[in-house]
Design brief:
Blueprint lengths: L4 H46 L3 E5 L8 H16 L4 E7 L1 H12 L15 E6 L6 H12 L4 E5 L2 H42 L2 H9 L4 H38 L7 H32 L9
Antiparallel strand pairs: 1-3, 1-4, 2-3
Helix pairs in contact: 1-5, 1-7, 1-8, 5-8, 7-8
Subcellular location: Cell inner membrane; Cell membrane
GO biological process, one term: cell division
Membrane topology: Multi-pass membrane protein
């Protein structure tokens, strides 16, 4: 039995809606994927920066035979170091521990080379990522040297500068590609919506010619766009969550590492999906509302 005109129109409408939803979900999936890459690249950058430690060596002007007094003085200095706002973590290294570390680094197991603990006690300071900056690191070193009980501070400035510049360069490129892909996503979603509205241009103009107000005509299109944007965003998020779960389970890392950043990414994807869909629908519909009947055949 042949299909009626209504059945044909409904089938075409469903096909159009499915195409739009698939386009939105695929684009938002890729946007979310770039967002995850950017988040984890920033975390990896912070992790690398935290490996660039500075060594604060204790002043040893006290009598070495008065070990109790020396230990108390070092504990007070260690406590002051930990209180600094640029310190993320501080680890006390005694003279005995320093000797053990030196043996490991030199690959020496025998005790003949070290008859006594000749290396000074120190504090291994891990700085917060935002302070591992060539413009700030010298100030941090100066502040550490100014703490009573600290004799000297060792830091590889050139290594810090090289690592900082390379990490920033990588993050800048990732951010640039993310922004570029977001622009591409906006264009693709906008084109999908415009094609959908284009197929209804005669219906829009007919409603306008019989006296319907522009607000009345826009309302169902905006409502439909809102629903399509939500559906597309949820499908994209579901696909993104599945891919991310598989990836993290394969490499053995937690599925959620920073809840706040992931929540922000989810809201960004939802906002992009809904806002672009609704905005594109309004602009496309408004274009045909302002056009003449003859223009509909050449749009």
């Amino acid at each position: 039995m042949p299909k009626t005109v209504d059945d044909f129109n409904k089938s075409r409408l469903r096909s159009s809606n499915i195409t739009v939803v698939i386009s939105i979900s695929l684009v938002l999936f890729l946007v979310g994927l770039f967002g995850l890459i950017l988040i984890n690249a920033q975390k990896y950058s912070d992790y690398i920066k935290e490996q660039l430690v500075v060594e604060a060596y204790f002043d040893e002007y006290l009598d070495p035979r008065d070990s109790a007094k020396t230990l108390k003085f070092q504990e007070e200095t260690f406590a002051k170091i930990k209180e600094q706002n640029y310190v993320k973590q501080a680890r006390y290294i005694s003279k005995q521990q320093a000797t053990v570390l030196a043996k490991k680094q030199l690959g020496i197991d025998a005790n003949a080379l070290f008859e006594e603990d000749i290396f000074p006690a120190s504090v291994e300071v891990t700085l917060k990522p935002e302070f591992v900056d060539p413009a700030k690191i010298d100030g941090v070193v100066s502040q550490l040297k100014a703490i009573p009980g600290v004799k000297d501070v060792a830091n590889d400035n050139q290594l810090t500068i090289d690592v900082y510049n390379n990490l920033n360069r990588i993050l800048t490129w990732i951010l640039a590609f993310s922004i570029l892909f977001l622009i591409v996503a906006i264009v693709l979603i906008n084109n999908s919506i415009r094609l959908k509205i284009f197929s209804k241009r005669f219906i829009i103009k007919t409603m306008q010619l019989v006296g319907a107000k522009r607000r009345f005509i826009l309302k169902p299109f905006i409502k439909e766009a809102l629903i399509l944007g939500l559906i597309g965003a949820f499908i994209g998020l579901a696909a993104l969550g599945g891919v991310w779960y598989y990836f993290t389970s394969q490499i053995g890392t937690p599925f959620v590492q920073d809840t706040n950043q992931y929540i922000v990414l989810i809201f960004i994807i939802l906002f992009v999906g809904i806002f672009i869909t609704v905005a594109s629908t309004i602009f496309a519909t408004w274009r045909f509302l302002r056009s003449n009947v003859d223009d509909l055949y050449y749009s």
